[in-house]
């Protein structure tokens, strides 16, 4: 890694990079808009041709940016099916120079309820300085940040910049990255790097850049309660036995205490956080309804980034419109538990199992099924690459970058660290609190998008060894 201070990138080079990004920015937005128009969803219930078309479009953009060594690669998923199409491209490093792996993903979430969208989800629409559309922020903008930054440094430096750049644009991140570990193992040599930049996170606010310093881990699964061998008439048999949905509701209620803290014993929790997140800002960012009391104790930032959070994200019971007068025999729920840094996912899963087994009411039968697991992440913000990216972000925005956590999880970060233990991982992003990733009316702030590109171009320049 470079031993120089990143501020030693000459001011003339900083200005030249900023100008190069600006000259091409309208074309970059147009390229992003073309990607948004492709509904590349990796879930099996959606047309596979669209995700293939999405990968092909990314490959075309990569080659147009000047990287000819580019191809679409895959790896098998654990269930034996073929993984999603990923684009891998390489610009080799000159001797003695580091290689930077730039990660993003081209697949997107389903649009959901189309009635909630103010514009067509797969038609990029610019309004009030934002670009609306599914994938505009998460994470097709990340792809264009990488490509536009690479274009800028190659235009400004040409042969003077000898660092290597490898692009890894995944094709099934929103589907849970099931082939990710196998992909890293299969293409280890092609993906090896000194620094890994994951452009799939968020800034603190519009106009305020951030480096994501911690991520919560994740475990999820389902639990089912059963009280009868089969459902029976609620009038004939109702009274002596409680229906399964009521049993399930009572069991779910045990997962939090009266203040809304997670009540599952044995989970890791921290009370420290580097930033203050004012309650009114959180309410606004999360669209909390007036009068709703916030859950948990401690600072908002600690509750978001440093403590566990447990949500019920699905329930299987008869829908109201088709419900009959029967005592339901079974009911099932799916839980999602975000883990504090330092929490072992296997231990957390057992904590949930033990809690449910100890609290299931009225002797109902319980079936617990563990599903996904992902590790939390804590960055070393004093590393050489971290100091360089913090400088680059501050230079691009004109204000110092902050360290933030993320309440969400990026489970594959742990895979990257295990397969490439010597690499420094930097988590950056183009989103802001109003980007609404995964929701209707997803959008990208175009002013910050341009600054993200400038910051990454400066990062690439700052990582060059012996630059004076």
Characterise this structure:
With 468 residues, this protein is α+β, with helices and mostly antiparallel strands. Helices cover 33% and strands 22% of the residues. It contains 13 helices and 18 strands. The protein has helices at residues 11-36, 48-64, 140-157, 180-186, 188-191, 234-237, 244-253, 279-286, 300-305, 345-359, 384-397, 412-419, 446-463; strands spanning 70-73, 86-91, 99-105, 125-127, 130-132, 164-170, 195-202, 210-215, 217-226, 232-233, 309-316, 326-327, 330-339, 365-374, 377-378, 402-406, 424-431, 443-445. A 6-stranded mixed sheet has the order 1-2-6-3-7-17, sandwiched between helices. It has a 4-stranded antiparallel sheet with strand order 11-13-9-14, with helices on one face. A 3-stranded antiparallel sheet has the order 4-5-18. A hairpin with a 2-residue loop joins strand 4 and strand 5. Helix 1 (11-36) packs across helix 13 (446-463) and helix 3 crosses helix 13. It is elongated, with a radius of gyration of 24 Å. Mean pLDDT is 94; it is low at 1-5.
Share of residues in helices? 25-40%
DSSP strand (E) fraction?
15-25%
Largest sheet: 6 strands, mixed
Major sheet strand order: 1-2-6-3-7-17
> Kindly state the mean pLDDT as a whole number?
94
Instruction: Pick out the low-confidence regions.
Output: 1-5
User: How many beta strands in the DSSP annotation?
Assistant: 18
Gross geometry? elongated
**Strand-pairing-aware structural class:** alpha+beta
Number of helices: 13
Distance between the termini: 15 Å
Radius of gyration based on Cα positions: 24 Å
């Amino acid at each position: 890694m470079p031993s120089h201070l990143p501020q030693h990138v000459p001011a003339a080079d900083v200005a030249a990079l900023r100008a190069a990004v600006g000259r091409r920015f309208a074309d970059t937005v147009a390229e992003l808009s073309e990607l948004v128009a492709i509904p590349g969803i990796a879930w099996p219930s959606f047309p596979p041709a669209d995700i293939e078309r999405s990968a092909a479009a990314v490959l075309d953009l990569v080659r147009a940016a000047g990287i000819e060594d580019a191809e679409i690669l895959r790896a098998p998923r654990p269930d034996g099916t073929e993984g999603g199409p990923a684009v891998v491209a390489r610009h080799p490093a000159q001797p003695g120079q580091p290689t930077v792996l730039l990660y993003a993903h081209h697949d997107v979430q389903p649009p959901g309820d189309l009635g909630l969208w103010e514009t067509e989800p797969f038609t990029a629409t610019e309004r009030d300085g934002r670009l609306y559309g599914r994938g505009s922020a998460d994470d097709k903008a990340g792809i264009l940040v990488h490509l536009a930054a690479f274009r800028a440094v190659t235009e400004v430096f040409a042969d003077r910049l000898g660092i290597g750049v490898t692009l890894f644009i995944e094709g099934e991140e929103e589907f849970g990255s099931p082939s990710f570990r196998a992909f890293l193992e299969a293409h280890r040599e092609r993906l090896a790097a000194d620094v890994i930049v994951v452009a799939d996170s968020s800034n603190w606010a519009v106009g305020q850049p951030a480096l994501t310093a911690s991520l919560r881990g994740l475990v999820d699964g389902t639990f089912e309660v059963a009280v009868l061998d089969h459902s029976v008439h609620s009038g004939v048999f109702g009274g002596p036995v409680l229906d399964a949905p009521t049993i399930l509701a009572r069991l779910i209620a045990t997962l939090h205490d009266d203040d809304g803290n997670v009540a599952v014993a044995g989970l890791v929790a921290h009370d420290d956080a580097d930033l203050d997140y004012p309650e009114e800002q959180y309410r606004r960012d999360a669209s909390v309804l007036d009068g709703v009391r916030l859950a948990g104790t401690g600072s908002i930032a600690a509750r978001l980034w440093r403590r566990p959070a447990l949500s019920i994200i699905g329930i299987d019971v008869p829908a109201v419109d088709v419900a009959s007068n029967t005592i339901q025999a079974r009911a099932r729920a799916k839980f999602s538990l975000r883990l504090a840094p330092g929490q072992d996912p296997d231990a957390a899963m057992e904590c949930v199992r033990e809690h449910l087994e100890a609290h299931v009411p009225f002797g109902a039968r319980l079936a617990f099924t563990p599903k996904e697991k992902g590790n939390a992440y804590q960055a070393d913000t004093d590393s050489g690459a971290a100091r360089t990216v913090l400088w680059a972000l501050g230079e691009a925005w004109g204000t110092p970058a902050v360290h933030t956590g993320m309440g969400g999880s990026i489970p594959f970060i742990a895979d990257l660290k295990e397969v490439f233990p010597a690499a420094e991982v930097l988590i950056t992003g183009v989103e802001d609190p109003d980007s609404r990733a995964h929701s209707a009316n997803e959008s990208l702030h175009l002013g910050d998008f341009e600054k993200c590109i400038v910051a990454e171009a400066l990062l690439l320049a700052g990582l060059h060894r012996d630059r004076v």
